[in-house]
Amino acid sequence: MTKLLRGAFVIGRRDFSATVLSKTFLFFLLGPLFPLLFGAIFGGIGASVANSRERPVVAVVASPADFARLAAARERLTAAVDPDRVVRLARFDAEPDLAAQQKRLLATRDPPVQAVLSNVAGQPQLVGSVRPEGTTAGQLRLILADSAAGREPLPLGVTRTQSSSGSLTRDRAATGQIGQMILFFLTLLLSTMLLSQMVEEKSNKIIEVVAAAVPIESLFVGKLFAMAAASLLGLIVWSAAGAGVIASLKAGGLATLPQPATGWPTFLALTATYFAMNYLLFGAVFLTIGAQASTVREVQTLSMPVTFGQILIFAFAATAVGSPNSGTALAAEAFPLSSPLAMVARAAQQPEILPHLAAIAWQILWIAVILRLGAALFRKTVLKSGPRLKWWRRAAKVVPMRIETRTTTEPLAPGS
Predict the structure, then answer these.
(1) Is 258 a member of any domain?
(2) Strand pairing partners for 4?
(3) What pLDDT digit, counting tens, does each position of 299-335 carry?
(4) Start-to-end Cα distance in the chain
């Protein structure tokens, strides 16, 4: 074990220095700009789809009779416009301390409350993270006017707060979706570098020279962790550059952005950790594929199914956005290959830390399993070249040649 770790450290230091100190590393740092641009576009689309599954509601503090009139007016409004765009209502009984009830309802996450509507029969008041001229307030004015039953409706008073559980739910879902997109594109971009590096070293016969000095398992583990370290260095550079851009555009920096449920320091640390886990999981698969291929064409053929598999796993992990406690989201968090992406979404939406510790331990276990299997397959294939013989050809090749000998009693001819 000591020899294996020592050899892995030597290979890792060699590959890390060759990667980071090369002239192409600068272009490597600039490479993710275009995928991140497309990721932001598709991430916004995915976040809107995820948010539509659990839209924020307006809590109505009213009697059953008053709420029934509002609900009937809302149903008439949904018959005229898209029902998915009409504000949702949820009734709550009135409490003696209305201010405390409003504060508690605005902090409710199940369901996420965007605003609280009270005093429906008298002077209606709306308190929450809404604008007086916004869509939510405008729809409530129409609903109140329709439910007035011929009476002149009183104007709706709107008191805007800084945040509510409904607005935080949307913002944190968007943060989780963006975090997933960043991890997916960076892993997809960086793991393919292992393929080209492996094919280049096999074609130049360098890998045979290195394998003669260190164990094959050390070569496998060292290359994987060297590229993971270089990728983490790139992630730190990209994060620092992004924070600098945000600080230059907004006075408060990250404080002006929607804060994740775990807080920015913890969320960024978990994102870096899950990136390393995700990269090690898929990097081991890609490195094993690189050991099977001898040409670039073979690399493209073998890596295509894995790339499509990554896309399907990303789509599976995206179900954790907007509904982190659903059965599908829990399954995505338990499945090893989708667990890092799903847990990034949970870090943005849920404040608990204990599930992340359990998930990291679970992912480390699977990384060890995949590394062991990948190293064994890597050992069998990395030093072999040429086409493999079919079983019948191998059998024919080992059949011994039969030599016939004959004995004779005839006398030898003279002079022979």
Answers:
(1) yes
(2) none
(3) 667 777 777 888 889 889 888 787 788 888 899 999 9
(4) 70
- Residues spanned by the domain of 115: 57-163
In the block, tokens 């005839």 appear at 410
- pLDDT tier, 416 (very low <50, low <70, confident <90, very high otherwise): very low
Number of domains in the chain: 2
Token code pair at residue 36: 């991140």
Q: Which residues contact 203 (CB under 8 A, 6 or more apart)?
A: 294, 295
> Is residue 311 domain-shared with residue 227, that is, in the same domain?
yes
Handedness of CA 202, 208, 213, 218 (dihedral sign): positive
Q: Which of 212, 198, 185 is nearest to 285 (CA)?
A: 198
In Å, how far are 31, 50, 155 from 188, measured between CA atoms?
12, 23, 54
Task: List, as one string, the DSSP characters of 130-182.
Answer: --TTSHHHHHHHHHHHHHTTTS-PPPPEEEE-S--HHHHHHHHHHHHHHHHHH
Contact 125, 146 (CB under 8 A): no
* Maximum mean pLDDT: which of 40-44, 87-91, 391-395: 87-91
Q: Go through the chain and tell me how many residues it has.
A: 416
Distant-in-sequence, close-in-space partners of 365: CB < 8 Å, separation ≥ 6: none
Contact 105, 59 (CB under 8 A): yes
